[in-house]
Amino acid sequence: MNTFSRRRLRNAFITWAMLATVFLVVTLLAEFVLDRGQSRMATEFMILASLVVAIQSYVGNSGLLSFGHVAFFAVGAYIAGLAAMSPEKKEQFLPNLPDWVISLEASLPLAILIAVIGVAIFAAFTGVPISRMHQSVIPMATLALLVMTHTVVNLWDDVTRGTRGLVSVPDLVTTWTVFATAVAITGAALLYAASPAGLRLQVVREDPIAAAALGIRVAATRFTGWMVSAVLMAIGSAVWALNSLAFGPEQFFFAQTFSLLAMLIIGGTGSVTGAIAGTAIVSVINESLRGLERGFAIGPIQVPELPGLIQLVVALALLLLLIWRPAGLFGNRELSIPRRRR
Amino acid sequence: MTVELLVQQLINALSLGSIYALLALGLAVVYSVLGLLNFAYGEIITIAGYCMFFLVSGGMDFWYAAIFGVIAAIATSLLIQLVAFRPLRGAPANAVIFASFAVSIIIKALISNVISPRPRGIPVPSWVDGVIQLGSFRLPILALITIAIAVVAMVALTWALHYSTPGLAIRAAAEDFTVTRLMGAPAGRLILLAFVLSGILAGIAGVLWIARTGSVSPAMGFTPLLQSFIAIVLGGLGNLRGAVIGGFALAFIEVALQVLLPTAVVPFTAALTLVAVVVILYFRPQGFSKLAQERVA
Amino acid sequence: MDTLLDVRGLVAGYGPITVLHELSLHVGRGEIVAILGANGAGKSTLLQALVGMIRPTAGAVAFDGHDVNGNSPEQIVRRGMTLVPEGRRIFSKLSVMENLRMGAYSRRDRAVALEQMDRYFELFPVLADRRNQAAGTLSGGEQQQLAICRALLSNPSLLLLDEPSLGLAPVIVDKVFELIATLRDETGLTIVLVEQSVVDALEIADRAYVLSNGRFTAEGTSEQIAELDLEANYLGGDNA
Ligand SMILES: Nc1ncnc2c1ncn2[C@@H]1O[C@H](COP(=O)(O)OP(=O)(O)OP(=O)(O)O)[C@@H](O)[C@H]1O
Ligand SMILES: [Mg+2]
After folding, report:
1. 3-state DSSP assignment of residue C126
2. Ligand 1 residue neighbourhood (C-beta within 6 Å)
3. pLDDT in tens, B110-128
4. How distant is the Cα of A264 from the closest Cα of chain B, in angstroms?
5. ipTM exceeding 0.95?
6. pTM of this prediction?
7. Residue C227: helix, strand or coil by DSSP?
8. DSSP letter (8 states) at residue B297
9. Domains detected in chain C
10. How many CB atoms lie within 10 A of CB A96?
C-alpha cells in the first residue's frame, strides 16, 4: 500500500480521459453552439461539478459524509473575491480592511493560490480535531463547522460586508478556464483515489479497526483526505467566485450544502463519475423547476410563488432514490472502457 | 461579581443545562441503539413548537398546549423513523444520515411555504417571567420550573431504563444490538421505542426551550440539534450519563463566555463556544467520558 | 431417537460470499452433538444461520417440528433455540442480574424465570455472589458462565454453544465442560457444541460432525471421530 499500483493508475487515467472529453464537449458547445444563457448554464455546471468532485474526494474515499465543505467553499470564495477585487472598490465597500489587503489586486492564478493557502490553513486547524473523532460523529461535527463559519461570515462586517455580501468582484474567468479547472480537479481527485494515501483511506473506510491493526494511522489518513479535498474545494471556490461576481453568506449555508450533497449522493458518493453525473441531473431538475418556483397558472387557478419548491422536489426525489439505491446511481463504478476478457 | 449575581448566573446555567441535558438525552438514546445521529432531530422541536403556537393562538392555555406539543414531538419522531430510518435499514450510514438531513430540509421548506418563513411569537403566561425574591436573591420562576421538570424527567427515565424490561433492553441494545435480538428483543420494536423516548425528551426540552425563547420559526430546530450534538460529544459518545454531563458542561461554558466576554464579541458566543469545545476535545478526545464511566462503576 | 433439529441442504454466507455449502445435519433430543473444524471452517456461520442472525440462501431448517428457516432471531429464541455466541458477548456495562434478566426477555412467565434463576445460582455460585456487579468486571471464566446462564434463562430446549472454551485456562475449560455435561444429565437439555479443543469436546459429546471449508467431511459417534486423529488430518495447519 505504499506504492502506486499501475493498474489503478491506468484505470484512473482512462476515466480521466473520458470525463475530460465530456467537459470538452460541454465547453465546445458553450463556446460555439449554445446561446448566452445556455452557455452560462454550461459553465456553471462545470464549476459545480468541480466542487462536487472536490467533496467526493473526501466523502467517497473516507466514507464520511461532510457538511463542512461548504465552509471551505465560503472561505475560498471570499478570499479569492477579496484578493482579486480592485483597490478602489475595496476602498469604497470595505474601507476597514487592512491596507495590505486593500492594495492587493490579484490575477486569477494568484487569487487561486491565495485562496488555496487560506483554505488549507483553515482546513488544517479544523481537520485535526475532526479527524480524531469517532466516525459516527464526524458528519455532525462538519455540520457544526458549517454553522460556525456561516456565523462568522455573516457577522464580520469589516471583511465580508455581512449579509450584504461582496460585490464588484472582477470577472477573470472564461469558459476555457472553467474547463481547465474541472479537468484538473477531476484528474486530481482520480489520482488521489488511486494513490497509496487514497487507498489507505479506503481501507479505513471499510473497517477502521482492522485498518489500525494493519498499522494504518487512521486519524492521519483521514486528515490527508480532508486536506486534499479542501485544496480542491478552494480551487473550485475561487473560480466560482470570480465567475459569480457578487455573493453573500446565504449562498454558503444549508441550501447550498444540501444542493451539492444531493448532487453527490444521487450520482453515488463512491465515484467521480457519479459525482459529475449527479451534478448534471440535479442541474437539469433545478433548471426545469426554476420557472415553476416563481409561480404559475393552471387554467384559471394562479399558483403563487413557491420558494423552496426545488429543494422540496429534490429532497423527495432523493429520499425515494436512497430507498431504491442506497449507494446512488453509480455506486463505486467509474466510467471506463468495457473490460476485455482474458 | 457579587454573590447574588453569581447565584443568578448559576441558576441560569443550571436551567439552560437542564434543557441541553434533556435534548442531548433524546439524541443520544437513538444514537445508542442505532449508532446513527438523527439529523432531523431539531425538527421534532420545531413541529412541537408550531403545534403549541396554533393551540395557544386558538386560546388554549400554554401548559395544556405543552402537553400536545410533547405528543406532536413523539409523532414527529416516529414519522422521521418511518420515512428516513426504517426504509434504509442496513443501508450505508451516509445514506441514512443524508435521508434524515433531507427530511429536515423538507419539514423546514414545508413550514416556510405553508405557514410563513418568518418567526412567530408564542405568548408565555406572564407569571412565568416573574421572580421569587429570597432575601437578596432573585430566583427566576421559569428557571426553577425548568430545573424541576428536567429533574423529574431524568429521574423517570433512569427508573424506566433500569427497572422496566423494555428499558433494560434499550440499554442492552446500546451495548450489543445483535445479542439483544438473540435474547428475544424484537429489533423493530426496540428502535421504535428509542424513537418514542427521543420524541418525549425532545418534546419536553422543546416546550421548555419555547417557554424561554417565546417564539417559533422554521429553522428553530437547528440550535437545539447542534447543542445536543455538542453535549453528547463532550460527554463521551453513546452513553446516556455522558449526555447529561455534556449538556450541563456546555451550558456552563456558554454562560461563562457570555458573562466574561466583552459585549462586542457576544454575537459570536455560539461560534466561540464551539471553539472552546473543540479545544476541550483536542486535549480529551473522549470528552468527559472518563468522568461518566467513573460514576457508573 | 426423536429428532429435535433437522437441517437439510443449508447454504449460507455473507453477501456474495457463500461460506456453507449444502450442509445437512440432525440432532436428537437430549443429545450433545459436537461440531469440529479449523479456523474459518464456517462453524460460527452455521450457528448464526441456525438462529437467524444470517439468512440462509437455500435449504430447510426444521426445529421441533416447525420450519424455522428465515425466521428472525427473536422468533427463534421463542421457539426454544438459544445461542451462546462466540466470545461470550455479555453486556459488560449491565450488572450480572440485568444480564440474566435480559436472558429471560423472551419469556412470558417471568416469575417462573426468577425461581429458575435461584436454581441456576446453585449451579453458578459465583454469579450469585456478584449479582450486582457490572458484568464487565467478571473474569473470563465467570463471564462464560454468565453467558451460558443467560442463555439458559430463555428456557431453551436446544442450546448452541460457540467455542465456550475460547480464551479460558485449561482448568477452567474442564469446569465449563463439566457444567455442560451436568446440564444435559440433569435437565435433559439438547446441546450443539462448536469447539476447537477436539479432545475435550469429544469426551462429552455423543456424536460429532467435522466441518472443513463449509462442508461436512466426516460424521459419526464420538468414538468414531476420535479415531480419525483429527488434529493431524483435518485441523492441523493448512486447511487444504
Ligand atoms: N461478517 C462476515 N463477513 C464476511 N465474511 C465473513 C464474516 N464472518 C465470517 N466470514 C468468513 O466466513 C468464513 C467462516 O467464518 P466462521 O466465523 O464461520 O469460521 P469459524 O469456523 O467459526 O472459525 P473460528 O474457529 O475462527 O471461529 C471465514 O472465511 C470468514 O472469513
Ligand atoms: Mg467461530
Report:
1. helix
2. C 14, 17, 19, 37, 39-45, 86, 196
3. 898 888 889 999 988 888 8
4. 11
5. no
6. 0.87
7. helix
8. -
9. 3-227 (3.40.50.300)
10. 8
